[in-house]
Structure formats: C-alpha cells, structure tokens
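User: Last request for today: this protein with IPE, please.
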Amino acid sequence: MQATSNLPRHVAIIMDGNGRWAKERGLPRIHGHQKGMETIRAIVRTARELGIQYLTLYAFSKENWARPKAEVNFLMNLLSQYLDSELNELNENQIRFNVIGRLEDLPPAIQGTIKRNIKLTQNNKGLVLTLALSYSSRIEIVNAAKRLCEKVTSGNLKIEEINEAIFSKELSTAGMPDPDLLIRTSGELRISNFLLWQISYTEIYVSDKYWPDFAKQDFLNAIKDFQKRERRYGRAETNEAGHD
Ligand code: IPE
Ligand code: IPE
Ligand code: MG
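Assistant: Here's the final one, the structure of the complex with IPE:
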C-alpha cells in the first residue's frame, strides 16, 4: 500500500467481539480473550511498521468490572502475562508504553508491572502504545474538571483562562494528539465511554470482524479507508466556489 501519505498520526481501537468469537466456536469467552491478545501483538507490529506514532487500545473499561469475577480474573492474568512478555519486544522496537484509566483499581502487582514497563520504555522514540485500563472517559472528564476547580480555588488559575487547550492538559491523554482514526471491531456502532472529548473530529471506521479475527490486512484496510476521507472540521468542501 502507499502507506506513508496521509497516515493517521494517532489510531485508537475499541477491541470488541472476543466473547462472540468464542461463542461462535462453542468455546468459553476466555478463549476469545486469549486469541485477542495475539491480535494485539499483530496490530502493534503493523502500526509500528507503518510508522504510526500513537496507538491507543481500549483493553478494559471501568464498566467491565461488572463482568463475572472469573472473566475479570482471567483478563487481569492475561494483562499481567502481556506486560511481562512484551517488555523486550517493546524495547527492541523503540515502543514507548503508556496507560490511561484508573490504575488504582488494578491489582497492586499489575500496577507495579505497569510502572516498570513505563519506566523501562520511557526513552524509546518510536510508537507510543497506550492501553486504556479501567478507563472511563466520563470519569476522566470529571477528574479534569475537579483539578481545574482546585487550581482556581488555590489561586493558581483564573476561570477566564480556562479554554479547550487548558482543559485538554488535565486529561490523561495530555500531550498526545487527538486520534485521527477510531476503529471499532465486531460491528457495534457505539463509543462505550471511550475518549469522548478526544474524538470530537476523529474519523470512525467500524469493522464487522470480531477482534480475534481482525488481521493485519483489516488494519491496512481501515488505514486505506481513512486516507480517502476528506476531513472538513465543520468547513465547506475545499474545491467548491465560496461566497465570500
Ligand atoms: C472485548 O470483547 C474485550 C473486552 C471488553 C475486555 P468482549 O469481551 O466485549 O466480547 P463481546 O463483545 O462480548 O463479544
Ligand atoms: C468496550 O467494549 C470496552 C472495551 C473494548 C474494553 P464492551 O464490550 O465493554 O462495550 P459494550 O458493553 O458493548 O458497550
Ligand atoms: Mg463487547
């Protein structure tokens, strides 16, 4: 593919459909999660090879804690396994590891491994790989509002100074560009509390494939589709005569 022109800088993915993938095969849901981890590896590799700068993966939502305990435990073990097994791979490929979400909700051992991986990859200059864990966009926004209130109350910020840029700096994605492309797998047409602020002008691509079946070619198709889009940001079409 002629990949490098108009490549999205930041791709975010709602990795959905693990359970249905397993169900279709008459397997317990956890098999879908296990297979989904292989997809993560393949897509991270492809994103890096393409030269994408930021890849943000929705791995576990705040709402996902309401799933059966056995499934949650399995997902936490899988996460722990992933964090341990990928560290070398991340460093060999200049990938900087990052997380967003309520890390304090995660088991302490995993919090430790996350901190270790962030620290040991912090000087890498390639792809920034962000996992959204125990993530809720609404909580993120409420927390940002609280922090701004604190700054105003303590006299470090004036209300009139608050604008979109100042607000963005209080989000966990501070310093990252907004996603250019949001992919959701498994055909669901919803956002499920993911990056609500950040996707204001993001291009959305929905694949019918379940996440465990989402292959390199599917990712490339999403990128190709993105490259054909005209992003208007509320303006009129570029090649039409204007009325000025
Ligand atoms: C996505 O797959 C993985 C997580 C949310 C952790 P699901 O587990 O939501 O699979 P479906 O949507 O039930 O098929
Ligand atoms: C969104 O998928 C969360 C993740 C992919 C981690 P869900 O399966 O939890 O979303 P809903 O329940 O279909 O909205
Ligand atoms: Mg789902």
